[in-house]
Amino acid sequence: MRNDFGEPTLPEAVSHLRIPKLNILAISGSLRAQSSNTSLLRLAASVAPDDVRVELYDGLASLPHFNPDDDLDVPPPAVLELRRRVGAADGLLFCSPEYAHGVPGSLKNALDWLVASVELPGKPVASLNASSMATHAQASLLETLTVMSTRIVREACVTIPVGRGDVDAQGEIASADLARATREALDYFARAIRDQPRWE
User: Fold this and answer.
1) What sign results for the dihedral spanned by CA atoms 175, 180, 182, 186?
2) Helical spans, DSSP H, in the chain
3) Is the dihedral of CA 108, 114, 116, 121 positive or negative?
4) CA atoms within 13 A on the CB side of 194
5) What is the pLDDT of residue 197?
6) In this structure, what are the phi and psi dihedrals at residue 152, rounded to the nearest 5 degrees?
7) For residues 15 and 20, what is the distance between their CA atoms, to the nearest angstrom?
């Protein structure tokens, strides 16, 4: 339908607008092949709404040990790739196990490589917790991300307990309850990202 000036009315005009798809980079703090944390992030990718793409970062094990002397004009290739993907993402979604009341060294190593980067500050982040017992790691991760000047979306930082029987041999989660809780967290996260000035 068009008005007297031949212009599309609001419903028709709006129907032609396309909301850009959000790109979420999901980072698991576990290197285990059968990690419940990685499985939960895979579930997030599978239940994401149509306007959200969740991609898993798989380069954690390839990152060299952090050394400020190596973070000069040209950092190692794996570090450059991590920073590129962080910079290209609209938000970061973490899920980490707990070791000795903290996050695993591999995840902390990745964060150390991002401390001096320009890609991370101001980036929306959220963290899923796959174990109700892992309260220290979640708190430690969020404290580190706060110091690194990220924008933490607290409503999307939730605990979604994944039991041993919830993950099949292929590392997939079929539970409808877990899928529903994960989708709710993603919906919160996506709304928070779109509500920031860049998306207005």
Assistant:
1) positive
2) 10-15, 36-47, 77-88, 105-114, 135-147, 176-195
3) negative
4) 13
5) 64
6) -80, 125
7) 14
Rg (CA), the chain: 19
DSSP-based helix, strand, coil % in the chain, nearest 5? 45, 15, 40
Q: What is the pTM of this model?
A: 0.88
Rounded Cα distance, 137 and 129, in Å:
9
- In tens, the pLDDT along 102-152 reads 999 999 999 999 998 999 999 999 999 999 988 899 999 999 999 999 999
CA dihedral 162, 85, 82, 134 (to 10 degrees): -20
Of the candidates 103, 80, 102, the residue with the CA atom closest to the CA atom of residue 27: 103
CATH number of 17-199: 3.40.50.360
C-alpha 133/C-alpha 62 separation (Å) is 29
Angle made by CA atoms 79, 84, 90, in degrees to the nearest 5: 130
CA distances from 130 to 30, 43, 188 (A): 11, 12, 18
Q: Which residue has the tokens 């212009």?
A: 7
Bridge partners, residue 53, by sequence: 23
